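pipeline/complex-builder :: batch 7 item 3
reading input block
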Amino acid sequence: MGLSRLGTFALVVALGLAIYGLIASILGARRRDALLAESARSTCFSLLALVAAANGAMLAAILTNDFAIRYVAENSSRATPTFFKVLSLWSADEGSLLLWNLILAGFISAVAFRFRKRRPETLPAAMAVLFAVQCFYLVLVLGPTRPFATLATPPLDGQGPLPLLQNHPLMAAHPPFLYLGFVGMTVPFAFAVAALAHGTLSDRWIRLTRRWALAAWIFLTIGLVLGALWSYGVLGWGGYWAWDPVENVALLPWLVTTAFLHSVVIQERRGMLKVWNLSLVVGAFALTTFGTFLTRGSILSSVHSFARSAVGPMYLGFLVLVLLVGFGLIAAQSWRLRSEGRFDSALSRETTFLGNNLVLVAVTFIVLIGTIFPLVVEAISDRQVTVGGPYFKESTVPLFLALLLLMGVGPLMPWRRATGRQVRERLALPAAAGATVMVLLAVFGMRDLAAVAALGLAAFVAVANIAEIVRGVRTFARATGHSLIRSGPTAVARNRRLYGGLVAHVGIAVAAAAITVSSAFAHQAEVALSRGQSARFAGYTLTYRGERAVRQPQRSVFIAEIGATKGGRSYGVLHPSVNVYPSDPNDPIGTPSIHYGAFHDLYATVLGFGPGGGSAVLRFFLNPGVIWVWVGGAIVACGGLVAAWPTRRPRVVAPPAERRELAVVP
Amino acid sequence: MPGDERSSADVEGSLRHPTALNSGGASATRRRRRWILVGFVVGAVAVLTALFAFGLTQDPTLVRPVLVGRPAPGFSLPPLASGGPTVRLSSLRGQVVVVNFWASWCVDCRIEHPSLEAAWERYRDRGVVFVGIPFEDPRASSIRYARQMHLTWPLVQDPGSVTALAYGVYGPPETFVIGRTGRIVYKQIGPISYPVLTDQITRALAEGSR
């Protein structure tokens, strides 16, 4: 009882502070009252402490089995291992909104801290937007989605978390990273809206928020990759991306933010695409809001949806507000946003960036339409449809191929205008590499045109971007007279954004190749085996050795033992299992067993056991190259980090600074 | 939408540039145009709002049985294992037909199997026909499953999932009860229980004889 009161009290006071911060920021901005604005700015630190206290209260309640709190009773149990108890904090709607509030308060405090000394003119207005968003999410946890709601008669034990969510440690990392990415987009949105509301309309907001957008993008990238990894390691269907509505809504802001990270460079360098960039930032934030609405507002069914939530109208109202304020301000101000430059030539880095933007936005629309199409059909024709993987694959693959092409060509292009000779010289090596890969694949009998093109383009992108890194470092080495190795880190440090981008491109190339290979060459088979019987699958001999039951406090695990050999050599034992949780005995959760490898993964799931474990129905997958999807994702995130790493501002690159930079490059 | 805004701003920017003289007029046009843009945004948001508001009134977890009450889509399907009969729905008119979509990879199909088996044994000689249609399942796996589970009712194959599509199968197991007149009287998504199945069969039998 005490913890529930404490948590609710902390949230109420936090909401009070957020409202104060909102009003004081607005008044401070309008009256140009620096003192008022400053009081609003410093409010957010107490706000953060209070929201953290509320999260702490919930965590304490979970850890001490305080089943008087409904959330604890529904999402934890005495038998839940401590690790998964901590995860229960965000394994259901109410708790995850607490975490969401914490992350948002954290971002607001980070903004307030970042601009504690030099305060941009638009800071009060931006703070007002941030406080307004925080107010909305605090109202949610105090009103319709109350995590601290109590039960009149507390049960002796709780239900435990959803079986699917207590099956894998990746649940610890996937949601927080995704939330960091989603919530992080609030900061660029706030500064964009502040700039529009102020009518100052300089490019300052871009410089203020570019790195915030990049940080959110890195978190989102990591969150998406971890989500795919979780899906692969837990769900047992052998894949990692299913075009599920909630996967899609996490991808959408990533696509738009990726576009923004590119087009923002054009605005900084050439003063063009101002309205476009504002639209992208507003669009990215609107899409994160849309994603929240879709997931928590129970509008579409999905493996992720928190179905029982009845807060749809509130989310919808908030989404409408975001769209109207964001795009409405852009529409109202667009007549003042004049482009300062023009595209000089069709052959320049600007035009490839523009192409990249158009393709990314096109992909965004295709995925968005596919995601809400079932709703549209139901609204106008009273029929129900589902949109599946084939739609998304067939409509996005050509665009992703075009994107790969641009990713290879773009970095080779100089700004403003390229000469034919320049382009030919720089393109020669990567184009040759790409062509060689395509020819080799064709010679070795590969007839899947899209896969051949994707692999060839991936090679093209990788070589083009690595060559560009080498060229840059070599030029720098020649200019300074140092060796290549020694000048590498310094060269990178002097133009982090460029090199970060190139590294990210290499990561995308690796991931694209891996995705292509894993979807084009996967094998699967399903066999029913009696104890001691073997099956041959993709060169492996797989023997079902029997079943073993393990009773754990929170579940019963039935494990199949499968010996794997290939060409007489043992490949160890696979242990796919079926887990039965007392909260849902009719819905056993399978856990796949995966033999990870550099070239392919051997992936086994058990579909069911015969009486006494005397036989088992098993499904095997041979998934080539999947591990490189994660490697590619990690490289992309590293590229983002290189680009985002703060640079101190000693204009002259002094030798001590060099050594410091060397240490921080990941 | 953002693209249009950008291009209009860009075009105006470049048009305006050389003739500074009539800038007052151009600026007025631009101001007028901004209200058109604002109106466009408001309109687009209104459409989206209406759509999502409609979505909120629907239960996304509910798949409406649109086929119930309608004539069952006809089919004529070859036997699963060679030697069995081809099953033509139209030739079963006058009997109650239970169409069950299943797959060897489907765990729930194994769960519902005892109910189907028991209902089949009870009604097989009383004017009720069961038809099992495998869904998205390699033929060899289906045959192995049928042998393993001792399925004794007619089993067919559905090349290209044409029949499953006609029945709007969402995912096996799905069971349709077709009345004597050829209308679908009941549809179950997910494993069916013995009481529900026998109750629906009894009703279908009674309805036809009345």
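note: Confidence is low (pLDDT under 50) at residues 1-24 of chain B.
queue -> next item
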